[in-house]
Specification:
Layout lengths: L17 E2 L4 E5 L12 E5 L6 E5 L6 H13 L3 E6 L5 H4 L2 H8 L2 E3 L17 E4 L2 E7 L8 E5 L4 E5 L17 H17 L4 E4 L5 E2 L1 H24 L5 H8 L8 H17 L1
Parallel strand pairs: 4-5, 5-6, 10-11
Antiparallel strand pairs: 1-2, 2-3, 3-4, 7-8, 8-9, 9-10, 11-12
Helix pairs in contact: 4-5, 6-7
Length: 273
């Protein structure tokens, strides 16, 4: 599951993927929906001059999409040596095993259920690909198994569904929790400042410049929404679906199920305070 709840940051223009930096190319998956925006962003990563690449979030199990990934690698003279997952939701992970088996490589993920081969991922890991590397940053909250990938040589941070290129991500309660999500946003905000991150490469939607301001906006939005939910609860409304109809009244109804999951996460967070 993935999703956006309302406009927040990012361009309203359609996103079609393409070259984001000398290191990163987005191959947009053919699975657009209200939940996935223009589709899942599959990222092909390789340092300039390197012949070794990683694929992040292969998306759906779709032969046409796999062909587009292979062509993008061939055009750059790259050999894909690993498949990485930001998390295991179907729109990111469904095709991972099929693609990896066709390439004779492994799939690395935090959740063992989504791995292929012996290597997983955990916070603080370094994925080495020849003479360049990717740093793994644990960012639970959207889901329990969410991680982000920092590419220090490029100044890029791949955020999966923790930060989207357009709109705001749901907290997929009960798998995801708001406390973890807020902590992850703060962690990414600190990393953006300390490591001079210049762009966010999200799991859906366009590339985001000015990461610090984007993350500040995400945090402020969460604080504001939580205050709205708290006020509605104080008025006597405690049913999550009813809260959605008040707090998210201006949001298209097709994403109300996503909003309800986030409201349930907010209610659990308020109960635990």
């Amino acid at each position: 599951m993935s999703g956006h709840v309302l406009p927040l940051v990012g361009s309203a223009e359609p996103w079609s993927g393409g070259v984001a930096s000398p290191w990163a190319t987005c191959i947009l998956a053919p699975n657009p929906s209200p939940w996935t925006l223009d589709g899942t962003n599959t990222w092909l990563l390789a340092a300039p001059g390197s012949s070794v690449a990683a694929v992040v979030d292969p998306g759906p199990d779709d032969e046409g999409h796999f062909g587009a990934i292979s062509r993008a690698a061939q055009e750059r003279g790259l050999r894909i040596s690993t498949v990485l997952l930001t998390h295991g939701h179907v729109d990111h992970a469904e095709g991972a095993r099929s693609l990896a088996e066709s390439l004779r490589v492994g799939v690395r993920a935090l959740d063992p259920e989504h791995r292929l081969g012996g290597e997983g991922l955990t916070d603080g890991d370094v994925v080495r690909l020849g003479d360049w590397h990717i740093d793994v940053v644990g960012t639970p909250g959207h889901s329990y198994d969410s991680v982000s990938f920092h590419v220090p040589g490029d100044g890029s941070l791949l955020t999966g569904d923790t930060v989207l290129g357009r709109g705001t991500s749901l907290v997929a309660w009960p798998d995801g929790t708001l406390g973890d999500y807020l902590a992850s946003l703060h962690r990414l905000r600190d990393l953006a400042a300390e490591a001079a991150v210049s762009r966010l490469l999200p799991g859906h939607g366009p590339v985001l410049a000015d990461p610090a301001n984007v993350l500040d906006a995400y945090l402020e939005h969460r604080r504001a929404r939580l205050a709205e939910v708290e006020a509605v609860v104080a008025s006597g409304v405690t049913d999550a679906a009813e809260i959605v109809s008040v707090v998210y009244a201006d949001v298209p109804r097709e994403v109300w199920p996503a909003a309800e999951l986030t409201v349930r996460a907010q209610l659990a967070y308020l109960d635990a305070r």
